[in-house]
């Protein structure tokens, strides 16, 4: 049984060891990327509107987390994605999706705890009550649990096969309008709707 707990930027920075530990278990990144990832995550905590949820066991051990912040010009991800979405959807499309957006930066659940609804609760919890017009994110362009989860919550693909500058893996840029629509978050409802 896990509970969700809101974690402020100062605690987030002080718990970066735990954050990196969950990230590493979930993503299995190359070891030489971890120190850079740690710096990036630490910087994220200073972005406007930073919000984070930990999913914790009853003894307080975190087994999952999700965090995001308000995207603004000057942030690397925001600027790169804004330009690419503008090229694909026009300047107005980029403004609609990205000029008042919660950027969902990370969502991870330890492998032993996946598939129990924690990831869904984390995403819904981070998005709940946000003032922004949209929520946007990037995720690998592969048939992953993350892709399935985001689609089932109502995210649509803004870009597919997108390669970030300096990278090589293909990503999807996805977005959803806020507030998320409750009916879309319920798989049973979706099945009834589809049936
Ligand atoms: C993505 C992730 C956070 C989801 O967390 P989770 O706690 O497992 O998610 P949930 O249990 O809430 O729901 C996952 C959904 O994906 C489905 N799912 C699980 N494994 C899947 C897989 N391999 N392929 C497709 N769908 C899958 C589940 O059935 C569930 O869908 P449903 O509610 O329609 O049945 C977690 O799998 C994870 O940490 N993955 C590795 C890291 C990662 O990719 N993070 C996201 C980066 S953008």
TrEMBL record:
Protein name (record): GNAT family N-acetyltransferase
Gene3D superfamilies according to UniProt: 3.40.630.30
Source taxon at top rank: Bacteria
PROSITE patterns named in the record: GNAT (PS51186)
InterPro entries per UniProt: Acyl_CoA_acyltransferase, GNAT_dom
Domain N-acetyltransferase: 2-185
């Amino acid at each position: 049984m896990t509970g969700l707990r809101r974690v402020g930027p100062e605690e987030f920075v002080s718990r970066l060891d735990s954050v990196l530990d969950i990230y590493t278990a979930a993503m299995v990144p190359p070891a030489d990327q971890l120190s850079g990832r740690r710096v990036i995550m630490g910087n994220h905590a200073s972005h406007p509107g930073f919000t984070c949820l930990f999913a914790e066991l009853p003894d307080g051990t975190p087994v999952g987390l999700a965090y995001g912040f308000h995207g603004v010009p000057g942030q690397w991800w925001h600027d790169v994605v804004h330009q690419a979405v503008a090229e694909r959807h026009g300047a107005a499309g980029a403004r609609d999706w990205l000029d008042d957006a919660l950027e969902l930066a990370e969502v991870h659940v330890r492998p032993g705890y996946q598939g129990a609804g924690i990831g869904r609760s984390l995403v819904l919890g981070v998005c709940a009550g946000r003032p922004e017009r949209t929520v946007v994110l990037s995720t690998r362009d592969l048939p992953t649990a993350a892709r399935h989860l985001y689609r089932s919550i109502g995210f649509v693909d803004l870009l597919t096969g997108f390669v970030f500058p300096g990278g090589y893996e293909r990503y999807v840029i996805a977005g959803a309008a806020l507030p998320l629509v409750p009916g879309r978050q319920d798989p049973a409802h979706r099945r009834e709707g589809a049936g």
